[in-house]
């Protein structure tokens, strides 16, 4: 499926949704590679429908002429909570809204939501990041070290990608910024963030491309050490308990 056909499919689906659900749809549109215009014949189609009140469409996934299509539905109140109470999904939704190509509804509303998502304070973002640690980065880094202990060459590259993906989320929250691409494209967008671990622009690509176990362990260890120094320097409190009695339960 070429780009014009994929966009026409998005328009046709959006028109059907608008005809069926009317004012219950705040805005509907397409995001991802189709919205950016860099989709290929094999790319999927991602549609977003923001609704108000009950009785709106249900989210679903299906194939159309062999192409995966996803309709993602979210109530506007839930979206606004995600935007104003930062958490791990905040970067995702900001990235979606930033590239969303509206097809039905209020075409100016995505821009207003992007502005809303930038209103939480730095303290709110720091609190959100603290709440997610050590689940972000440290757990997946532990899996890399486990691969090294087991001499597991097969799983180590996958865990390296997990470390980088989770670090991307953490850096988005720390910098109050977001990315608009997946995989390495999104990682590359973080290189311009002001707050980064030492050597991040060199170590992140090195870890992404590494396949040898020793290279993965070395690059990940250096990168995670720099990440720890960064979050500490930014004043984040990440307790590392040494006694069971000190753990608040």
Structure characteristics:
249 residues; alpha+beta; Beta Polymerase, domain 2; Four Helix Bundle (Hemerythrin (Met), subunit A); 2 domains; 5 strands
Q: What do you see in this structure?
A:
- The chain has 249 residues and is of the alpha+beta class.
- The chain has 11 helices and 5 strands.
- It has helices at residues 3-21, 33-36, 76-84, 90-99, 109-117, 122-132, 138-150, 156-175, 183-189, 200-209, 213-233; strands spanning 25-31, 45-51, 60-64, 67-75, 101-105.
- The radius of gyration is 21 Å and the shape is globular.
- Strands 3-4-2-1-5 form a 5-stranded mixed sheet, sandwiched between helices.
Q: What would you say the CATH architecture of the largest domain is? A: 2-Layer Sandwich
Count of the separate structural domains:
2
> Major beta sheet, specifics?
5 strands, mixed
**CATH class group of the largest domain:** Alpha Beta
Number of helices: 11
Large-scale geometry: globular
* N/C terminus separation: 54 Å
Strand order of the largest sheet: 3-4-2-1-5
Instruction: Supply Rg.
Output: 21 Å
Give unreliable regions as ranges: none
The CATH superfamily of the largest domain appears as Beta Polymerase, domain 2
Coarse structural class: alpha+beta
Order of secondary-structure elements: HEHEEEHHEHHHHHHH
State the helicity in percent bands.
40-55%
Mean pLDDT: 94
What percent of residues are in strands?
5-15%
CATH fold-level topology of the largest domain: Beta Polymerase, domain 2
Number of E strands = 5
């Amino acid at each position: 499926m070429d780009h014009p056909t994929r966009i026409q499919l998005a328009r046709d689906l959006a028109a059907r949704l608008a005809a069926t659900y009317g004012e219950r749809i705040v805005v509907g549109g397409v995001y991802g590679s189709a919205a950016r215009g860099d989709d290929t014949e094999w790319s999927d189609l991602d549609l977003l429908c923001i609704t108000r009140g009950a009785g709106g469409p249900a989210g679903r996934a299906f194939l159309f002429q062999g192409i995966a299509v996803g309709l993602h539905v979210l109530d506007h109140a839930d979206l606004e909570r995600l935007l104003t109470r930062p958490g791990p999904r905040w970067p995702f939704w900001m990235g979606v809204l930033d590239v969303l190509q509206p097809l039905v509804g209020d075409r100016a509303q995505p821009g207003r939501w992007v502005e809303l998502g930038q209103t939480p304070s730095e303290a709110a973002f720091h609190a959100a990041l603290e709440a997610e640690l050590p689940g972000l980065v440290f757990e997946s880094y532990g899996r890399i070290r486990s691969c090294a202990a087991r001499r597991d060459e097969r799983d180590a590259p996958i865990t390296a990608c997990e470390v980088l993906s989770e670090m991307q989320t953490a850096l988005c929250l720390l910098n109050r910024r977001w990315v608009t691409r997946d995989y390495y494209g999104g990682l590359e967008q973080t290189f311009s963030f002001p707050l980064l671990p030492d050597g991040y622009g060199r170590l992140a690509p090195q870890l992404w491309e590494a396949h040898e176990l020793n290279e993965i362990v070395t690059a990940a260890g250096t990168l995670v050490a720099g990440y720890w120094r960064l979050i500490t320097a930014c004043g984040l409190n990440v307790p590392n308990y040494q006694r069971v009695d000190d753990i608040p339960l």
